[in-house]
Structure formats: structure tokens, C-alpha cells
Automatic annotation (TrEMBL):
Native species: Xenorhabdus vietnamensis
Entry keywords, A to Z: FAD, Flavoprotein, Oxidoreductase
Pfam families reported for this sequence: Acyl-CoA_dh_1, Acyl-CoA_dh_M
Superkingdom in the source lineage: Bacteria
Occurrences of domain Acyl-CoA dehydrogenase/oxidase C-terminal (ranges): 235-364
Protein name (record): Putative acyl-CoA dehydrogenase
Domain Acyl-CoA oxidase/dehydrogenase middle, residue spans: 127-217
Length: 374
């Protein structure tokens, strides 16, 4: 049963308004975000979930009836931030998908190597799975670890649509290794000859700074194999799947918060007939709370997570169309912030699986939960 408490984060508004201000600027001046790095509250938010030992902002966040360690509370925070600007939030350094993977699968030495730099400055990371021809289908990736003539490990392959790599000091690469799969820790600055990052130019959510990565005989040591040389992902795939699955409601929360921000803008300009969209928003918010509670209780249901992702993407895109169709021309053609957030609205579909994939996931998960063989 979903919790009834809706948290109030309005005490953070003065800080979050900087996301709104800098969102459009970051599209053409990525390093303008240096100003955001000076805001302790924004940095504390972006580091939520980082291991306490390595989190320089632990305890710095203003907390009012909010537990940053509780996933339902964190979902509400992400949704609220996205009302201001999800792209700016995604551009920030701090906790990430790769951080969660290292925390649950890494050896103690790997955790120290990966997380220690967070103590001395802003750190961006990446998690490279998707490839040009097969997307994020991990079973059919071509990036591979092999041995050269001397028996040393080398990494070759291509990754595509990878966020954070342009500034990253470290990251994880999903690769084949014989008949198994491995996650390889990479520190880009050490491999300039063997590692190439090409900036892509997405339509929306430019804060992700998507890139194409190329690995050309990149030397790899056993110490870089996440979990150690004898611990392949065969026994860790359920854990990795859980890490990904827990990330998907966060994307849905971003889409939902963006829809709220756009609906609020339409309301401010006196656009009528939005009750249908607001009802959808509140219904999906309730579903988001239920999913957050399920994750917190260890009883998450894949089909509900996929349902939330599909429906929030559909809602934010439907609301975005209202901007172009119903706003007065002089407003729509001159408000660059709304134009930017319009573009952002259509990017959530491609984060953490498209709707077609999630419809299939929802079908498989629900039928399996009912004991129906596939």
C-alpha cells in the first residue's frame, strides 16, 4: 500500500531555481555549471546515496521530515527537482549507476580506488552498456576482453549513448570475457591512446552529455575486473539487474516532475482544459509512491516499474505538445526555457529502456507472477 505522506521540499526552492536558470545555459556552455558546484545544497543532493566514508557532503543537506536513505523519499525528491530542471540535475557530479554497482559488487580495494577521488573534488562517472547495433541488450554485446600475444588482457569495442563519460575520471564497461560477462573499471586519463570519447548531440536532456566510446586494445589488469578475477557476473547478474531496476523509477520520477513543471507553466499562462492531464499526474504520483514503498520493503514488482516508465513518458510528451499547440505564439516563440524543456520531454523515452521494451518486460513479469508459463 502506498504511503500517504507527500513530502514538502519547498525549503530547497532557492537552490533548485539555479537548475532552472542554468539549464538552458548548459546546453551551449557546459562548463558554466561550475557555478552550481559552489552550492553546497545542490552538491549534497547529487551525492545522496554515496557511501558515507567517501561522501564529503554527508550531513550537509537540509532535511525536514526527509530520510535521504529511504528510497520512497528519494523518489519524491527527484520528482520535485525535475519540476525545476531534470537536465541540470543529470549534469551534476556525484552518485550514479556505476557507484551503486561498485558498492554492491566491488572488492574492498576496488571500492577504495573508485570512491576515494570523491573526497578531493567533483567526480563524474559512467556506466557503459549500450552499443551501436544492439542497444542495451547485454546478452548480445560485442565489446570484449581478450588476450594479446603475451597473454595480457585487452579491451576492444564500441559503446553508444553513454552519459557522463566526457568529464568522467572513472567508469564501468560491460564486456564479454569468454563465455561470461564482466564489468571493467576504466580510468580514462590513463588510456588516452586506447580510449576515445566522441561527444554526441542529443535533442533533449543535454545535461547527460551523451558520448560514443571506442576501446582499441585498451590494456586491462585483473584488478580492474569488478569483483575480482575469479568472480564473474554470472553470480552477480541478479544484483546488477536489481541496480538497473531500481534506477528506472528514478527516470520515471524525472519525467513526472518535468510534466508537472510544464503543466504549471501552462496554468500560469491561463491555458484551460488541463484537468485531464493533472488527474493523470496525480494518479502516476500515487503509483510512484507505491513502487517506492515496494522497493523499500524488498518486494518490487517489475511490471509496475515498467508501467510507470511507459505512462510517465507518455504523459510528459502529451503535455509538451500542449506548449506548441496552445500557448500564444509570442510566448512559445520567445520563451527559450520552455522550448528547452519541451525538447527534454522527449528524451526520457530513451532512458533505461524504450516503451516497447517495458511493455514486453511488464507482460513477462506480470504473467510470471501469476504462474503463467511463457
Amino acid at each position: 500500500m502506498a504511503r500517504k505522506k507527500v513530502l514538502d521540499f519547498s525549503y530547497l526552492d532557492d537552490h533548485l531555481l539555479k537548475f532552472t536558470e542554468f539549464g538552458p545555459i548548459l546546453e551551449t556552455q557546459p562548463y558554466a555549471m561550475d557555478a552550481l558546484l559552489l552550492d553546497e545544497q545542490l552538491m549534497a543532493i547529487s551525492h545522496i546515496g554515496l557511501p558515507k566514508t567517501y561522501n564529503p557532503y554527508y550531513g550537509a543537506l537540509k532535511i525536514e521530515h526527509f530520510d535521504p536513505e529511504a528510497f520512497p523519499d528519494f523518489l519524491q525528491l527527484v520528482e520535485y527537482i525535475s519540476r525545476f530542471d531534470a537536465s541540470s540535475m543529470l549534469a551534476m557530479p556525484g552518485n550514479s549507476l556505476s557507484c551503486r554497482a561498485v558498492e554492491v559488487l566491488g572488492t574492498e580495494a576496488q571500492k577504495e580506488r573508485f570512491f576515494h577521488p570523491f573526497l578531493s573534488g567533483p567526480v563524474w562517472t559512467f556506466f557503459a552498456v549500450s552499443e551501436p547495433d544492439i542497444g542495451s541488450d547485454a546478452q548480445h554485446i560485442s565489446t570484449a576482453l581478450t588476450q594479446d600475444d603475451t597473454g595480457a588482457l585487452i579491451l576492444n569495442g564500441h559503446k553508444y549513448f553513454i552519459g557522463g563519460a566526457q568529464k568522467a575520471s572513472t567508469g564501468l564497461v560491460f564486456a564479454k570475457h569468454g563465455h561470461h560477462s564482466r564489468l571493467v573499471m576504466i580510468e580514462p586519463d590513463q588510456y588516452s591512446v586506447h580510449f576515445h570519447v566522441e561527444a554526441l548531440h542529443p535533442y533533449g536532456l543535454l545535461g547527460t552529455e551523451l558520448s560514443a566510446l571506442t576501446f582499441d586494445d585498451l590494456p586491462v589488469t585483473e584488478a580492474q575486473l569488478l569483483g575480482g578475477p575469479q568472480n564473474g557476473l554470472r553470480h552477480g547478474m541478479n544484483t546488477i539487474s536489481h541496480v538497473f531496476e531500481k534506477h528506472r523509477p528514478l527516470v520515471a520520477a524525472m519525467a513526472l516532475g518535468t510534466a508537472y513543471g510544464l503543466l504549471n507553466a501552462l496554468d500560469r499562462h491561463g491555458i484551460k482544459g488541463l484537468n485531464h492531464y493533472w488527474r493523470q499526474y496525480h494518479s502516476l504520483y500515487t503509483l510512484m509512491l507505491r513502487i517506492g514503498d515496494d522497493f523499500h520493503a524488498g518486494s518490487a514488482k517489475v511490471h509496475l516499474t515498467s508501467l510507470l516508465k511507459v505512462r510517465t513518458c507518455r504523459l510528459v510528451e502529451s503535455v509538451a505538445y500542449q506548449l506548441a499547440e496552445r500557448l500564444p505564439r509570442e510566448i512559445w516563440l520567445t520563451d527559450y526555457r520552455l522550448q528547452k524543456r519541451y525538447r527534454d520531454a522527449f528524451a526520457f523515452e530513451y532512458m533505461e529502456g524504450t516503451s516497447n521494451i517495458h511493455r514486453l518486460n511488464a507482460y513477462r513479469s506480470f504473467t510470471a507472477s501469476q504462474g503463467v508459463p511463457l
